[in-house]
Amino acid sequence: MRADARRNHERLLVEARATFAEQGADASLEEIARRAGVGIGTLYRHFPTRAELLNAVFQEALTALLRRSAELAGAEEPCRALVEWLRALIAHAGEYRGLAHALMSASYDRSSALAGCSEPLRAAGERLLGRAREAGQVRADVSIDDLMQLTNAIALAAEQRPDDPELADRLLALTLRGIKD
Fold first, then answer.
1. What is the pLDDT of residue 51?
2. Are 135 and 79 contacting, i.e. CB atoms less than 8 angstroms apart?
3. How far is CA 121 from CA 11, 56, 61, 82, 172, in A?
4. Dihedral of CA 88/92/94/100: which sign?
5. Which of 52, 53, 103, 163 stands 20 to 30 A from 60 (CA)?
6. Which residues contact 168 (CB under 8 A, 6 or more apart)?
7. Of 102, 84, 82, which Cα lies nearest the Cα of 152?
8. Spatial separation of the C-alpha atoms in residues 46 and 39, rounded to whole Å
9. Residue 114: what pLDDT?
10. To 10 degrees, what angle do helices 115-134 and 99-108 make?
11. How many whole angstroms separate alpha carbon 68 and alpha carbon 61?
C-alpha cells in the first residue's frame, strides 16, 4: 500500500472507531469519510462494505478476546473460565450500539465480512466449552453457537436498557443456570 493510501486507511479506521462509539454500528459511512478527510469513494476502496469496515475496526478487540481465551484455557475451574470469557464477549458486543445485532446476523451468514470475527471466537469458545464439558460442569448438549447467540442477545437486550447497568449480568446468570450439568 502506498504511503498516502496507508494514511487514509489508518485515518478511516480511527474515525470509524470514534464514530461507531458515538453513534453506533449503523453510523453514516459518509460521516466517517468526512471526518477522515477523504471522499466516500476512498472509504469504499478500502472497505467495500460496512461489514468489512466493522470487521477491521474490531480486529483489536478480537485479538484481545482471543488472547483472553488463551489465558483462560488452562484455568483450574473450566466453567468459571468459560463464564469469564462469555462476560468479555458480552462487553465487546455492547461496546457499540448495533454491534450485537450485526454479530448475530454474521453468525448465520458465514460469507459475511464479520464472519472473520466470529469464526476465531467460535473456535476459542469451543475450546473453553469443551474443557467445561469434560469437567462435568456444562451439559453435553450445549453448543458454542448457542452460547454466542445468547451472549449477543444479552448484549442486545442490555443495549435497549442503558438505564439498567446490571441487566447483562442478571441475564447471563439466568443463562448459566440453564447450561450447568
1. 84
2. yes
3. 27, 15, 11, 12, 18
4. negative
5. 163
6. 90, 94, 154, 155, 157, 158
7. 102
8. 11
9. 65
10. 80
11. 10
Neighbours of 176 (CB within 10 A): 16
Asked if 152 and 25 count as a contact pair (C-beta separation under 8 A), the reply is no
CA distance 62 to 174: 26
Per-residue pLDDT, 119: 82
- How far apart are the C-alpha atoms of 37 and 128, rounded to whole Å? 43
Closest CA to 152 of 113, 99, 81: 99
User: Is residue 64 a contact partner of residue 44, using CB atoms and an 8 Å limit?
Assistant: no
| Residue among 43, 50, 46, 60 nearest 25 (CA) | 50
Mean pLDDT for each 10-residue chunk of the chain (181 residues)? Answer: 88 93 89 97 95 85 92 94 94 78 68 71 94 93 91 90 92 85 60
> In the structure grid, which three cell numbers stand for residue 60, read together?
483489536
* Alpha carbon distance 72, 166 (integer Å): 24
The reported pLDDT for the residue numbered 179 is 76
**Using CB atoms within 10 A of its CB, is residue 4 exposed (0-12), middle (13-18) or buried (19+)?**
exposed
